[in-house]
Design a protein that fits this description.
This protein is of the alpha/beta class. The protein has a single domain, classed as Rossmann fold. It is built from six helices and eleven strands. Strands 3-4-2-1-5-6-7 form a seven-stranded mixed sheet, sandwiched between helices. It has a four-stranded mixed sheet with strand order 9-8-11-10, sandwiched between helices. Helix 3 packs parallel to helix 4. The model has no long low-confidence stretch (mean pLDDT 98).
């Protein structure tokens, strides 16, 4: 079993034409994740390394059926990117960006109340269900499918916990890096409840 993501998750990258966004979209695709496109305003209609690029998240969702988005945009634009994804009907938004202003995140949290969308991050490594779907910046090779769920605020400590498990032949269901910022989308407790219900 798994939480949040699996082999059927269809992912777009907001900020795909930037070096970081493209690099990690390629890595996720190589891992086997269904990376179905990306969004960069003003670059719609182009293709970058096989990824179709759209001007808006709404366009991307209509054309690709995406149900998840990963955000690699500068901090000043991250709140708008999150809210755009929410408005487009994306069910899972993972914001990797570090340095998002705290007041921006307060507005985002208020905006998301009552919406059918889960936010992971910002300032997080992402989410991975080993062998099925990797969304974010974590190294895929350290993970192994299995029965243990992992949740952490710290990216590198997440990797260390996973590596300690994997080297002892203990696999993971899903690993969730919730991010270390003061205001984030999902708490430790919420992820633990997901694992409990899985």
């Amino acid at each position: 079993m798994s939480v949040l993501v699996n082999k059927d998750t269809r992912v777009i990258t907001q900020g795909i034409t930037g070096a970081t966004g493209l690099f990690h979209a390629q890595g996720a695709r190589d891992y086997g994740t269904q990376m179905v496109g990306g969004v960069t305003p003003g670059k719609g209609g182009t293709v970058i390394d096989g990824f179709p690029v759209f001007n808006t998240v709404e366009d991307a969702v209509k054309e690709t059926g995406a149900n998840a988005s990963v955000i690699y945009v500068p901090p000043i634009g991250s709140a708008d990117a999150i809210m755009e994804a929410v408005d487009a009907g994306i069910e899972l938004v993972i914001c990797i960006t570090e340095g998002v202003p705290v007041l921006d995140m307060v507005k985002v949290k208020k905006y998301m109340e009552g919406k059918n969308c889960r936010l992971i991050g910002p300032n997080c490594p992402g989410v991975i269900t080993p062998g099925e779907c990797k969304i974010g910046i974590m190294p895929g090779y350290i993970h192994k499918p299995g029965p243990v769920g992992v949740v952490s605020r710290s990216g590198t400590l997440t990797y260390e916990a996973v590596w300690q498990l994997t080297t002892r032949d203990i696999g993971q269901t899903t690993c969730v890096g919730i991010g270390g910022d003061p205001v984030n989308g999902t708490s430790h407790l919420e992820v633990l409840q997901m694992f409990e219900n899985d």
